Amino acid sequence: MSAPYHTIPLTPLRKIIAARMTEAKQTIPHYRVCMDIQMDALLALRQHLNADNLQNKVSVNDLIIKACATTLMEQPALNCQFIDNEIHQYQQADISVVMAVDGGLSTPIVKNANHKTTQEITKNIKDLAGRAQQGTLKMNEIVGGSFSISNLGMFGVDQFDAIINPPQCAILAVGAARPQPVVKNGSVQTANLMRASLSLDHRVIDGATGAQFLSTLRELLQHPEPLLSV
User: With the CA atoms of 12, 14, 17 and 20 taken in that order, what torsion angle do they form, in degrees rounded to the nearest 10?
Assistant: First the structure.
């Protein structure tokens, strides 16, 4: 009688992911802060940016990367790594973007994202994503980073909690923006809401600090005009 399953050996990439995620869950005291963010203004801005830009279309995730980079400059306590009982707080936002690749995940880094325009981030992400799929990224393009973003909204996921990528201290998990009823000016209206879940390392970042970051990010995503500037 044949076995009711077949054995799949772990690939080298999957072994690395397994080891790092086990280390993260065992050594980092995770906690989460969540907020719903109205995305209508951001979706309108994206449509405007892409109206005459067929070759380099900006995604929602590109705008979220830009917004996070801007927010990290205002809330630098989250723009850090925890190494050997020291907090290394960085002056630039090097944002790791979690991407699915064949057999696992990759985390290419958008370096100096706070100094890039949204269109520059779009081009950078397309280049990184293409080379991530080919497995040709250099080590310094995937190791490091001061903050991470994981987006499963394109798969219809409403909410999830992401595991921090050590030695970073925070990762933002975002779901899909969906039309939902909200109360505005005393009446029920419809708005596109996105749930943002921020995982934080409690050794380094306290709840109030995480809440301030999400509040600043929500304000920027709901009034996104500043994203048009560097």
Answer: -60
Low-confidence ranges of the chain (pLDDT < 50): none
Distances (CA, A) of 194 to 71, 110, 133, 217: 17, 23, 28, 12
For residue range 170-217, list pLDDT tens digits in order: 999 999 999 999 988 889 999 999 999 999 999 999 999 999 999 999
User: 35-69 burial string, b = 16+ CB within 10 Å, else e?
Assistant: eebbbeebbebbeebeeeeeeeebbbbbbbbbbbb
For residues 165 and 148, is the Cβ–Cβ distance under 8 A?
A: yes
Residues marked as catalytic: 202
